[in-house]
């Protein structure tokens, strides 16, 4: 399971959002850390094929995204920053709709849904309209949805933002457990530094450029930082000074 | 991807639209009340003022209510097509369009399924409306429900594709009011939905000419004949031709753009 990005650039008219991004991600929990406006969501939009660049620079599990989009999408689960659930439908209807878009039969989808929802403690909310769920539950439904088709790569764009401490903890620990149990590649984008652990692969994105990429504890050691806060500020200040 | 996966996908998209439609009760109500108001209030007034002479496909004199039923059915389909285009704009603005775009199935197929779902919803609404027409002395034979179904489906597909085409042109939800004023009303009023074309010709030649070039006129005529178990070949040919053109334009023009927060 891997994501390879080579020399990826993207601009909104004249404003550069990503500038020559190179990334190599493998199985495990990869954290993409960057402030608002760093280019995280742009990177996600490119990784999910919602935005296009002329260069063929994104490879997911050995498949080129642009020439093999169908294969890539069947292996990819995504949780977007903005909620994409249909508020008028129930949890079950939302999940079955997504499963159908991946060509999964309702029978098979329901089996997957039951397993995932029980892991996320959402089984009893199956028939509730999404509109009646709180933010934490909605996020969990989105994560469940991203997992129905058993993806090998899971992308989460600021999935824990705006949630209370308990919901954040539940979501992040669940996603971490998926890496260990299923051996999938997770890209977790966030601007919350307390979500990074020493053994995580850390990518620091700032002003559309990758400032650093390595194990968090290795990066801290290399830059004489006691924690990820110090590391982050030393790297982003240096880049601004340049 | 095998044929079963395509089937599940298509059924899933149709189910979603049906669930959404029945969840949005005001949409269901307005879909029925609008044409019923026209039929009960507007047509009752005009019945006294207008006489409809013998014309095809009617074999005898008919009441004005009977005349406008096909036009009102097409009005339901027109509004549903445009409202579905509104839902596409809404989906794009709210982000749920991304879910559709994340499917590994080809985009033209997904849009085709979306159009099928719009057509299916239109068919349901028209059937419900036709049931209500029995209460205002409009006789619809049970067989007509069967013969009208393919016509309603084609018309709905055309108007859904038109809505899809418009939705890719509309940048914001607020612009939909413009669609009402510049597309729906002219299409409806400048057609044979409310008056026979010969009456329009008597009133104004240039209005009559516009009506003749309006594809909605042919939609109404296709359905009018279909309700009598007949095929109006000219109307059918025109509707098929415009459906093909608009569908291709809608598919080629479908380029959803998303806002990014960085």
Walk me through this protein's architecture:
The complex is a heterodimer of chains A (242) and B (262). By secondary structure, chain A is of the alpha/beta class. Chain A folds into two domains: 2-75 and 152-241, P-loop containing nucleotide triphosphate hydrolases (Rossmann fold, 3-Layer(aba) Sandwich); 83-150, no CATH class. Chain A contains eight helices and ten strands. In chain A, strands 6-7-8-3-9-10 form a six-stranded mixed β-sheet, sandwiched between helices. Chain A has a four-stranded antiparallel β-sheet with strand order 2-1-4-5. In chain A, strand 4 and strand 5 form a beta hairpin. In chain A, helix 3 (91-101) crosses helix 4. By secondary structure, chain B is mostly helical. Chain B has one domain. In chain B, helix 2 packs antiparallel against helix 3 and helix 5 crosses helix 6 (142-169). Chain A binds chain B through residues 12, 17, 36-42, 45, 48-51, 69-74, 76, 78, 80-86, 88-89, 93, 96-106, 129, and chain B through 1-2, 4-6, 8-9, 11-13, 15-16, 19-20, 23-24, 94-96, 98-106, 110, 256, 258, 260-262.
The overall average pLDDT of chain B, rounded, is 85
Name given to the CATH homologous superfamily of the largest domain in chain A: P-loop containing nucleotide triphosphate hydrolases
- Structural class, judged by helices and strands of chain A? alpha/beta
| SS field, number of helical segments of chain B | 11
Number of domains of chain B: 1
Ranges of chain A where pLDDT stays below 50 over 5 or more residues in a row are none
SSE order of chain A in H/E notation?
Answer: EEEHEEHEHHHEHEEEHH
